[in-house]
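Tutorial handout. Part one gives the primary structure; part two gives the three-dimensional structure as tokens.
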Amino acid sequence: MSAIAIIIIVVAAIIVIALLAWALPRMRARARERAAERELQQRRQEAVAQNRQQAQLSQQEAETAERRARIAEQEAAQARAQARAAEERAELHDRGLADHELVGEDEEFPGRERIISRETAGDGAVAGDGTAGNGAVAGDRTAGDGALAGDGTAGDGRASAAETPQEYPTRR
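Part two.
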């Protein structure tokens, strides 16, 4: 067993070395491929997590923007309502129906009694001497047909052209 055994052992060693030389690079390549696959999978998961986080953040920003838009819309509606109310007040002042807001209790000027009595008249009547109760303005005489009463007011509750609110001093 001496020479044949040594030859068999040497041939076997050469075959094992050849197999290792041939298989080792392939095993290293497979190991690199698996490592690259694991790294790619990890990057995918990070990208998915990052994109989902960005989508959630964008969704929250969109909801916040929608809330701000609703608030702005409500504020605009309030501003329009305030503008309408101011326009209505201006119309009342233009018609002379809100003079009681302009007259202080300590102020004196012509026609003050009529304006103050408008505040206290319950049925919409404006009475200078207490004789009108149907919305007519009464002073010295009552006129219900649109004629001027003795104090210069129209009988239908409107001031005559001579008594416009522009004649009264205003408080600012």
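Part three, for discussion. The chain has a mean pLDDT of 75. Helices lie at 3-95, 112-120.
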